[in-house]
């Protein structure tokens, strides 16, 4: 897992309905380091950023997805941008673990400005995550 780069880290708190499931997903499957916790929440080192899973009785409803590249992209979603080799290793490991994807790993803008790998999945509570990989990080905000 990446250590935080020179950019500021974000803090994001998300709802989950089961902290044990969150621990299995974020701690074991994604290999995020567990930080402080209580009976109501767990802090995670999410690829150098602070992610907090907060226990809720039920998940909020989700809006309809948006169509991107003829794929149904869930809204809202969050994620992380990785270097391409790290993205590929994570994608391969999740495939090996038979993780279900909303959108399976693929390359967008192949051979064009902003070329990137991407995939989407849900955590056990239904939060949507996107993982992107760039061979050239200077292309992240390219137009």
Task: Please explain how this structure is put together.
There is one protein chain. With 143 residues, the protein is an alpha+beta fold. The protein has a single domain (11-58, 65-139), classed as 2,3-Dihydroxybiphenyl 1,2-Dioxygenase, domain 1. Helices cover 17% and strands 39% of the residues. The protein is built from two helices and ten strands, in the order βαββββββαβββ. It has helices spanning 19-29, 84-96, and strands at residues 11-16, 33-37, 41-46, 49-55, 66-68, 71-73, 78-83, 103-108, 116-122, 128-134. The chain has a four-stranded mixed β-sheet, covered by helices on one side. It has a four-stranded mixed β-sheet with strand order 7-10-9-8, covered by helices on one side. A hairpin with a 2-residue loop joins β5 and β6 (71-73). It is globular. It starts with 10 loop residues before the first strand and ends in a 9-residue tail after the last strand. The model has no long low-confidence stretch (mean pLDDT 94). This is VOC family protein.
């Amino acid at each position: 897992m990446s250590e935080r780069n020179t950019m500021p880290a974000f803090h994001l708190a998300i709802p989950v309905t089961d902290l044990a499931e969150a621990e299995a997903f974020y701690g074991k499957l994604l290999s995020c380091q567990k930080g402080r916790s209580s009976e109501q929440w767990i802090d995670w080192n999410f690829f150098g950023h602070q992610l907090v899973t907060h226990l809720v009785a039920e998940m909020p409803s989700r809006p309809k997805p948006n169509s991107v590249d003829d794929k149904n992209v869930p809204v809202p979603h969050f994620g992380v941008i990785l270097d391409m080799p790290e993205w590929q290793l994570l994608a391969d490991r999740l495939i090996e673990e038979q993780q279900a994807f909303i959108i399976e790993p693929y390359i967008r803008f192949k051979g064009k400005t902003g070329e990137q790998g991407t995939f989407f999945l849900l955590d056990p509570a239904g939060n949507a995550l996107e993982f992107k990989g760039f061979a050239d990080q200077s292309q992240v905000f390219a137009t």
